[in-house]
Amino acid sequence: MSVLNTLAQPFSPAGFPHFHYDQGQLFAEGSKLAEIAQQVGTPCYVYSKAAITQAWQAYQAAIGTRRVLVCYGMKANSNLSILNTFRALGSGFDIVSGGELARVLKVGADPKKIVFSGVGKQTWEIEHAIKVGVKCFNVESASELKRISQVASALKATATISLRVNPDVDAQTHPYISTGLKENKFGIAIEDALQTYQLAATLPGLQVVGVDCHIGSQITETAPYLDALDKLLALIDTLKENGIALKHLDLGGGLGIRYDDETPLAPSLLLSAIFTVIDQRGYSDLELVFEPGRSLVGNAGVLMTTVQYLKHTEARNFAIIDAGMNDLIRPALYQAWHGVLPLDLPKAELATHHYDLVGPVCESADWLAKQRLLDLQEDQVLALDSAGAYGFVMACNYNTRGRPAEVLVDGSTWHIIRTRETFEDMIRGESLP
Ligand SMILES: *Cc1c(COP(=O)(O)O)cnc(C)c1O
After folding, report:
1. Is the domain of 269 the same as that of 344?
2. What is the mean pLDDT of the chain?
3. pLDDT, position 176
4. Residue 243: partners with Cβ closer than 8 Å, 6 or more residues away
5. Is the CB of 298 under 6 A from ligand 1?
6. What are the two backbone dihedrals, phi and then psi, of residue 93, each rounded to the nearest 5 degrees?
7. End-of-domain residue from the set 292, 315, 333
8. How far is the CA of 293 from the centre of ligand 1 (A)?
9. Is residue 104 part of a domain?
10. Is 91 inside any structural domain?
């Protein structure tokens, strides 16, 4: 990018419309990030409410008047303010633990819009979910089915269930975020599904209402979804022949976003392809459910960090920054790419070094970006883009580092929606015998 052009008029980094440079300064909506960094400190996550709303509206525009429930896959970002934003938009929630259930109930979510996924649901979690009356359990094994039946019977209640089927399709994504292959721990093998539905029909305390799959994350093609859909519709046909009628079909989440140069999978493209197949196969009356996480929040957030030290060695140029793998683990875990945006654009095109941005944590895996052509100074503040999903939620206290603050921007106002974790926060619960 030419600096002269960029200074002349406001512009947004590609794929990132709610963040923009004006006079060389990076803004989230109408809020200048340098001011937030100065007042809140770094590392600090900043989210744009308008970006979240726009991502939500992309789904709603694709859905139109059809009967589709969007359940935000809240493990992507579960800050109460983010959840409250989704609740206010009318979203349902896809939860994977009793802790997540408690979070969404805290912001007043409607249990009838909550689906409960996850391979390892414990008895207390199942009990809580039955008591509040969640829409559906997405059941991942025959053993879990029996456990839910027992818990529901003991409570003299009925649990509504759906089986999470593993359709054995390759989502063509990173192996750690692929979930729909035979070798993955998730779901019930599609060949065993009929038998498991028949078991469900005989167990007390259960009402079978749906079928579910979630084949992976950061998927950028429609083909894996259509493969899965085809297999699930064939299963629904078989179930019907065997006297088991379903009310809903849940195709999970997984839509990919733009991190580097990926073409994101637009909800309109995917949903229209799905609707076409559903209508052709005569299932227009099935309620559809989607569980998107990343595609609703990923591009809505950045992680601000300050350059501590520059270190030029024979093999590498390092920028040692104040954010590490404990704050944002995606690069270490998935070799993920996050763009690096200076808060203050350099006045001239001086970028002569390829830098590795590394954190202070004592691990060689502690890097956030590699080999980026940048012009860096010590004390300079940077923003790692597309950090709204699977960022803060995966943060931990490794090396006794407090987790970052979180800020939600709404136009020219912003709020700290989570304070930086203190030493006292970190040792709470520890004691000397
Ligand atoms: C993680 C997860 C999601 C959300 O996935 P994204 O890739 O973030 O859209 C949805 N459903 C289930 C069951 C999940 O585990």
Report:
1. no
2. 94
3. 63
4. none
5. no
6. -135, 140
7. 292
8. 6
9. no
10. no
